[in-house]
Amino acid sequence: MDSTWGQLLLGLATIVGFFAAVAAGVALLIWAPLVSPPKAPRWVTRQGGAALRRGVWRLAVQAGEHLRGVRLPAPVTRWAGQVARHPARLVVLGFAAAVVVGWGLLLLPAATETGRGAGAITALFTATSAVCVTGLVIEDTGGYWSGFGEVIILGLIQIGGFGIMTLASLLGLLVAGRLRMRLQLGTQAETKTMGVGDVRQVVLGVLRISLLVEAVVAVVLTWRFADGYGESWGRAAYLGLFHAVSAFNNAGFGLYADSLMRFVGDPLICLPICAAIVIGGLGFPVLFELRRALRTPQRWSLHTKITMGMTGLLLGGGWLLITWAEWANTATLGRLGFADRLLAGFTTAVMPRTAGFNSVDLAQTHDVTLLINDVLMFIGGGSGGTAGGIKVTTFALLGFVILAEIRGEPSVHALGRRLPAGIQRQALTIALLSVGLVMASTLALLALTPFTLNQVLFEVTSAFATVGMTTGITAQVGTAGHVILIALMFIGRLGPITAGAALALRERTRRYELPEERTIVG
Q: Where are the bilayer-spanning segments (predicted)?
């Protein structure tokens, strides 16, 4: 067997084991055995290959019996119980575990082309970027990492986009056919499910949508790489799958050193990737609702209406502004034909939806284009999906609050619905905390590096919003800068999730009110 394919198969086997280990670890943490021995689920007894499934089932039952017999020390049990009572903590701990394990796998000598092993910061940065579906890299993905390392990165992207708690829930459903309440609460916090009773349908729906979109895009890209660029079918299939998974999960990792710049005028490469990015960035709650009521927009929930409207507005506005700003820039769009300029402008406007690919050299764009991208990246995509940023719903809610204040209205209304005061406070809190974090990190990097404000602000916003676009300074910010970016990627991926869940759970009624006094505003 060719050594490259051997590395790919080894990486695939490793990441499958990683999937199961992370999910089982989460289930063990919340003290919920994965199996229910008395009755085998329906998938075991179906005709066709039943013997193999029964064997797998027996192994799962034995593993579950072993888990039930595990008795951890009392301090560990108490700590696990405290963590399990807070869904946001479960999500953070699960992602942290995935980052640590991915870091360890990328430190292996087999993960690099040279066989010498990656540096500790390089491996940690790459693992965090992959799990947090960001796309910032210190070393070129296709040139530095081996086939084994690339598959590990691809698996980390899929784990990060799919979600740790969602993965654990899927394993629980496959093995036991049921979910414990604590696992449902953790998955609800991660996927923004409206009700605990919907978790089972959500988990299976996430799996179906992810596999369907990734498969369709991978097929189109595979055909194009093979037919249009002379790649062998095996190599084309690998390229197609890698870029499809990376695009749908809004990760931005690519196997070409110039990202998509060599395909700037190819709609059969750029448009399928853009489609995957937009679909993944809408969020799974919106995708589920569109699947049920695509042709009846009047029946959409307020969340879906806001997400769809803001997505269309930001994509259209971004396309228009970026294309206008770069139209005559010979280093970006100015050297292209009319149709290619429109395609490149659209692709560039889609990428701040937290995808991270680029079809033009961002280091050569005008300052106004960088600022437009900063705003689009900070807003991000939809809630409960693979996108980052403060989310389009948060941004829209702040707009509705401002509009109500301008009108002098005592309550906030949006599209025929009244917004609860608690939702308004959550949106304001998340937005202001995010602004403060981006500003503090920008100041720190300006003090640590020789780069300009535009470059540093772009890099920081890209890391916080888990976008992955860069002006080319990622590898040059130094160890301290890399640590700051690692923290930003992790907080940016989990901050809005955990902050939203924590704020919702901490809401309580005061037993008394203090005397009212007004301050001067403005």
A: 12-34, 88-108, 120-139, 151-176, 202-225, 268-288, 308-327, 427-448, 483-505
Give pTM, 2 decimals: 0.82
- Of 264, 430, 433, 260, the C-alpha closest to 339 is 264
Helix (H) or strand (E) holding 94: helix 87-106
| 3-class DSSP state of 18 | helix
The residues, ordered by sequence, that sit 6+ positions from 433 with a Cβ below 8 Å of its Cβ are 495, 499
Q: In this structure, are strands 417-418 and 413-414 parallel, antiparallel, or unpaired?
A: antiparallel
- Asked if residue 146 lies in contact with residue 7, where contact means CB atoms within 8 angstroms, the answer is yes
Q: How far apart are CA 23 and CA 164, in angstroms?
A: 7
Instruction: Give residue 176's Cα distance to chain centre.
Output: 28
Instruction: List residues bridging with 414 in a β-sheet.
Output: 417
**145-201 confidence digits (pLDDT tens):** 988 889 889 989 988 887 655 655 555 444 444 445 455 555 555 555 545 455 666
Instruction: Give the model's pLDDT for residue 147.
Output: 86
Smallest Cα–Cα separation from 138: which of 124, 152, 122? Answer: 122
**Encoded tokens for 1:** 């067997």
CA distance 395 to 390: 7
